[in-house]
Each structure stands twice: as C-alpha cells, then as structure tokens.
Amino acid sequence: MIFVTVGTHEQQFDRLVKKVDELKESGTLKEEVVIQTGYSTFHPDHCTWKQWFDYDEMCECVENARIVVTHGGPASFLLPVRMGKVPVVVPRMKKYAEHVNDHQVEFTEAVRDMGAGIILAEDVNDLDEVLADYEKYAVGSGKQTFTASNNQRFNQRLEELTESMFS
To answer: How far apart are the C-alpha atoms of 106 and 138, rounded to whole Å?
Structure first.
C-alpha cells in the first residue's frame, strides 16, 4: 500500500492529491493507495481517501504502507522516519496557494541535507519516477539509524535550524 498524507494545514494541497490520483488512474501505481486529503478541494476518484485520520489510524496506515508520501510538515514526515521508513516528502509551496510561504521547501531541503532519510520531491511530476524506483531512492537517501545518540544529534541540529529560521 502507498499512504499519502497532506496533514492538517488549513490550505488545500490539490497538486499532490490530484497527481497521485492520476498515477493510480493511469496504472502507474498498481497497488492500493490511501490518501488523507485534509482541506484539499480535489477528491480522488481512483484512490481510497478520507479527509481526516485520527492519530492511531495514521500510525496504522504508516506502519502498513510500503511507501509513505507526505507534505513537508515535520510531524507528518518524522512519524514514518521514527517507524523506520523513508518517506517521500512533497513540500507545500506558496506559488500554488498551499501555504503562506515556502518554509516547507527550505526546511525539508535542510532536513534532507542533514541526512534524516527523506526523499524530497519538490516537483509532483517527478513522483512517477520516484515511486517506480522507490527502493533505489530510499537506499540513496542518506538515512541515519536513529539510535539514541543519532536521535539526540538530529534533534540538536533540528533545533538549531529552527532557531535560525525564526530569529
């Protein structure tokens, strides 16, 4: 299964939801696809979808998914990372009215560069290739093993990054 989540931000993320539905319709994605659509106005015709999942449902979907595709919100992409998965992260962008600015782009690029084990797909037109060759991208993601020391180091670097963005 492929699980897609757009989080709980109050702006739509139709660009991601529509692209995944198109990939399912075309047969590019052959396995089951489940999408949490949030405030998106586009409703998929070819994927199973639900506007909201509670936390336990989200955890179950992430755990059962072969691939998790998520927006660039930290809570959404760090959940699969903590569960040992390498998520495909599509950051929301201001130019598509998906967020108020491009902080998700900047933040996810920095997290990727820190070696946190995410696959960054800023352009949804790259999703077909990324999903088709997921294992190759996942191996090359720089994924750290989150032992206590790595987790502590990652949290420290994340805190420094966050402080630098807002100071």
So the answer is: 21
